[in-house]
Amino acid sequence: MEQGRSGCPINLSLEVLGDKWSLVIIRDMMFGNRRHFRELLHNSEEGIASNILSDRLHRLTERGLVSRAPDPSHKQKVIYSLTEPSIQLVPVMAHLGAWGRRHLPVTRELAVRAELLERGGPELWEQFMDELREQHLDIPRAAGSESVFARLRAAYEAELLRD
Amino acid sequence: MEQGRSGCPINLSLEVLGDKWSLVIIRDMMFGNRRHFRELLHNSEEGIASNILSDRLHRLTERGLVSRAPDPSHKQKVIYSLTEPSIQLVPVMAHLGAWGRRHLPVTRELAVRAELLERGGPELWEQFMDELREQHLDIPRAAGSESVFARLRAAYEAELLRD
DNA sequence: GTAACTGATTGCGGTTTGCAACCGGCTCGG
DNA sequence: CCGAGCCGGTTGCAAACCGCAATCAGTTAC
Question: Does pTM top 0.85 for this prediction?
């Protein structure tokens, strides 16, 4: 059992998430609902390589941020799911997106979701986390207003059409 | 002018902060008020190497997250300061710390600050950011209650004495 | 004058990264 | 039942990056 560099919460978080790809993968699973290896590989904006994706999925799995399960519809397919710890990264994602939107040269259509998440605030994040728990952990949620997931997607697609 | 992998806010944030050291350095400047190379080098929990520290300080400087200025008291000393963009990382730090504290094997005394920041919520973060603006940007703040910086430090030291 | 301290740089070996090609098992259409 | 294409990966390789120890020249305190 190798231990990290220090017991500081921020340092430990970085030892799990502190690379260029882990959070991108979680982002795609979270906001793009990509659940299969091939989806994560080809539908990514950034073009991750298959060996890196494979490595990160294993690493995230053994650290408890991702779980894998066979897909009943195809004996070879694997479904990757978020876990409760990674679902609780939603506020971190929201803040990180808001910060990037404010200080870095973001693309308009990709910034829409970050803006919506930021304006929605903690209540919206909680609702979104409940939707993720339903999608990934099979925990039914109280039927609420229109899905945050759908709203984020709709806002993005509306922005695409503005060109 | 090389551009990144995509214009997504989260991806762009990761291209700036997505390594194991950048946020650790910003954390030490932010919560430990380390402003000199030597302080950052030796007083760090994690033991960063000098070449890495040098590289990251340059990188963070050219990306606008850190500024450098000569120290009038010593012709060779350099004072590193946070900038407005990096001060605005306080909420990200708070959430990241809270997440790490909840899901990773943190050390008790190092977790105290994360807990205090989490319980304080956005109002406390704003107050802390104003203190950072005073310390790093020379922007005077309205005289308020006891400094958040001092409270975080006191809580940490009180926890150390409990051994 | 000299010893300690300043922000770095250099050399080196090991690890990680990104890319392209490839793999055996599986599914589906004909 | 056969071939094409899909499935989650693995392999080989070159380049970049990483961490460590030693070292540097200029500055300061004594």
Answer: yes
